Amino acid sequence: MSCFMCSDETLLALALDAAKMRGERLDRELVQAHVLTLYAANLAAVNERYSKNPTESNPPQVTWNLPNLTPVERLKAADCFEYQASDWSGYEGSEAQKLVRLARKHAVVCLPGYDEAPWR
Predict the structure, then answer these.
(1) Beta-carbon contacts of residue 117 (< 8 Å; ≥ 6 apart)
(2) Which of 3, 44, 55, 82 has a 20 to 30 A CA-CA distance from 119?
(3) Rounded-to-integer distance, Cα 108 and Cα 111, Å
(4) What is the 3-state secondary structure (H, E, C) of the chain?
(5) Coil, strand, or helix at residue 71?
(6) 69: nearest Cα among 26, 15, 117
(7) Contact 21, 92 (CB under 8 A)
(8) What distance in Å separates the CA atoms of residue 120 and residue 118, rounded to the nearest whole number?
(9) Per-residue pLDDT reduced to its tens digit, 40-66
(10) How far apart are CA 104 and CA 76, in angstroms?
């Protein structure tokens, strides 16, 4: 299994969707904090996976060039992030995991037909 740093677009999309699902006000400071949480988990996973060669990179900055992803692309971004971050031993129960679960839930409720489907 390999592990890599997810794109800034992925981190921003997940951070925004998690904030929306929590009903948080979308300001730069809050979204940046979520992006940094996700970034730190991703970096910890890469460094834990390749401990002999720690990776250092600059954390992404929120630019408000908002990703225009479909709900399916958002779900795929969440899957990609979790696949990468799960290499970190601290991922289970982490704030990053909570954010990704919220982002995934937001993507699901944005799927076409979700609101119209009966509650069973």
Answers:
(1) none
(2) 82
(3) 5
(4) CCCCCCCHHHHHHHHHHHHHHHCCCCCHHHHHHHHHHHHHHHHHHHHHHCCCCCCCCCCCCCCCCCCCCCHHHHHHHHHHHHHHHCCCCCCCCCHHHHHHHHHHHHHHHCCCCCCCCCCC
(5) helix
(6) 15
(7) no
(8) 6
(9) 999 999 989 887 666 667 777 777 777
(10) 9
- Cα 77 from Cα 9, distance rounded (Å): 9
| Cα distance between residue 92 and residue 51, in whole Å | 19
pLDDT in tens, 4-32: 999 999 999 999 999 999 999 888 899 99
| Residue 14: strand, helix, or coil | helix
Q: Which of 4, 82, 12, 83 is nearest to 47 (CA)?
A: 4
Contact 90, 44 (CB under 8 A): yes
Distance CA(58)–CA(38), nearest Å, equals 13
